[in-house]
Write a structure and sequence with these properties.
3 domains; six-stranded mixed β-sheet; alpha/beta; 548 residues; Mannitol-specific EII, Chain A; seven-stranded mixed β-sheet; Rossmann fold
């Protein structure tokens, strides 16, 4: 079985340009992920592939340690933290060595402070961007969207977590599965931890009921991902159709993190894009809310981006009306909203209702989901138990940008937001006498007044649907010194300006969904921000959106 999997990965390597990622996924330490990864490495090396060990953690397991023999290991970087000498993967050395394949254990690992990246998965993203293929390992409890599910199931708060997009974007996932009885036998034989740690492990995490729940969770996750990846391209194109998912956020919502993880799992089950929306009322203007609330909100929106949402801030006097306006514009089918603090009996007597109740009353054609405040098992739906590996099963969906005109500019000086948008619009419409620039500018300004299009730490995405436009127009700009938004004080380095034909109606949503997906790739955004000229910018955008 290992040989067949290695052969399949070998075919991927030989036809790739960007690095490919293969993950051995398990439900617990000791199931054999690292062991199988090393076997895979030996198989590839026997086929003449240049394979090195970037980082392996054998945890004192003799069988695993023995398998490292015969494979070149890149020397580790030594680091000291709080007086303790530690070793980390040397990312710079791996990139300089430039093998065909690098083996990197424990994808969710947190690096020693002071290194190039905070997390090992970020190291892996840099390696992949350099065109080097990676084989790695991960336990199911480290998936960000499963944090609440795992805590509810086994009572453990998992501190080291990996954004779901890392696993969703993997080219192969192999489930490493053993029965809980066999795993506990291995633990008792001292094959997982030293004998002095066995009793404490059996009394805590390695309880049989915990392992069974984690194993079932892993199998359900694999079943869900196989279902998504094996849908045909026609289904993939429907991701941006009606029935997308929206999670509504408040500045100090008591369960915002749980809501976001619920929304992420729901969107995955429905195979739909999803959005996170914060409605900024006049009472929550940045000049009004306190610093602690701003930090909470910033952390919530950062989590939404890590989970794969496209994040928007809309301005509005009325929260419900603003949510419904967003839902119409982005063809939302499911709205996930938290349960607010209950309205007092006296206020109810005078007709007052909370936001969720008002939304349910006014929504037409929308499914409004109000999870319990203590939701802990989001996404723990039943499903078939699947033990097969996923082997390059993702369909190649057609890009909505195939017919788009793409323009680009690199600004060397800092820019104010309005100045930058005006300049980018002028470049986008250069030579387009059939489009009234002044009219388009008015539409963009009106759209911007509704809500800032500064979406992420490094990205702004002004956009509009334009009557009479016969093809999408995408303009991209990078500014090494930043583009500043005076209203909020925020700065970004990359701007996408998207103009879409008004018809068909779903065209704009599809284009936004593709841009949002690309923008969740930090390496892609950093590459755009570092581009030296317009042609490099266009090349990077085309490579990401069109695969060319």
């Amino acid at each position: 079985m290992i040989g067949n999997r290695a052969d399949s990965f070998l075919r991927l390597i030989r036809r790739s340009q960007r690095g490919k990622l293969k993950i051995y996924l398990g439900y617990c330490a000791g199931v054999g992920k690292t062991f199988q990864m090393l076997q895979d490495g030996h198989r590839l090396a026997a086929e003449g592939i240049d394979v090195v060990i970037g980082y392996i953690e054998p945890h004192g397991r003799a069988e695993t340690q023995a398998l490292t023999a015969g494979l070149e290991a890149v020397p580790r970087r030594k680091a000291s933290y709080r007086g303790v000498d530690l070793e980390e993967m040397d990312l710079a050395a791996v990139l300089a060595r430039r093998p065909a394949v690098v083996l990197v254990d424990e994808l969710a690992h947190t690096n020693v402070p002071g290194g190039r990246n905070e997390k090992r998965y970020q190291d892996v993203e840099e390696i992949l961007e350099a065109g080097i293929h990676v084989i790695s390992t991960l336990n199911i409890q480290h998936l960000e969207s499963l944090y609440d599910t795992v805590e509810g199931a086994v009572g453990v708060k998992v501190r080291e977590r990996v954004p779901d997009k890392i696993v969703l974007d993997a080219d192969q996932i192999v489930n490493v599965d053993v029965t809980t009885e066999d795993l506990l036998k291995r633990l008792g034989e001292g094959k997982i931890y030293p004998r002095e740690r066995i009793s404490s492990a059996l009394a805590s995490f390695f309880r049989a009921e915990n392992l069974e729940q984690l194993r079932e969770l892993t199998l359900r996750e694999l079943a869900s991902q196989i279902d998504v990846r094996r849908r045909d391209p026609g289904h993939e194109e429907s991701r941006s159709g009606l029935d997308q998912v929206l999670v509504c956020l408040g500045s100090r919502g008591p369960n915002s993190e749980a809501l976001l993880r619920y929304g992420s799992r729901l969107a995955g089950r429905l195979n739909r894009n999803w959005y996170a929306l914060y409605v900024q009322t006049p009472h929550e203007n940045p000049e009004v809310i306190d610093a602690q609330t701003q930090r909470i909100l910033s952390n919530t929106l950062a989590l939404a981006r890590r989970l794969g949402a496209t994040v928007f801030t809309y301005k509005g006097e009325d929260v419900v009306d603003t949510i419904l306006r967003f839902a119409r514009e982005y063809r939302i089918g499911h709205v996930v909203i938290g349960r607010p603090h209950p309205v007092s009996g006296l206020r109810r007597l005078f007709g007052r209702r909370d936001v969720a109740e008002r939304l349910i009353q006014k929504a037409r054609g929308l499914a409004v989901v109000v999870p319990d405040n203590q939701v802990k098992a989001a996404g723990a739906e039943s499903g078939p138990l699947v033990r097969e590996a996923m082997e390059d099963a993702r369909p190649a969906a057609k890009s909505a940008f195939e017919q788009a005109s793409i323009r680009a500019v690199v600004w060397r000086e800092s820019m104010a937001k309005e100045e930058a948008y005006r300049d980018l619009l002028k470049r986008a419409l250069a030579g387009r006498g059939d489009v009234d620039e002044a009219r388009v500018w008015d539409i963009l300004r009106s759209r911007e007044a509704q809500g800032s299009t500064y979406l992420a730490e490094d990205l702004a995405l002004p956009h509009a649907r334009i009557e009479g436009l016969d093809e999408p127009i995408l303009a991209v700009a990078s500014a090494s010194r930043g583009i500043h938004e005076p209203e909020t004080g925020r700065t970004v380095r990359v701007v996408f300006l998207l103009l879409s034909p008004a018809q068909p109606e779903d065209c704009h949503v599809r284009l936004l969904a593709e841009l949002g997906s690309a923008a969740r790739d930090d390496a892609f955004l950093h590459g755009l921000a570092a581009a030296s000229d317009a042609s490099e910018l266009v090349g990077r955008v085309r490579a990401s959106l069109l695969g060319s």
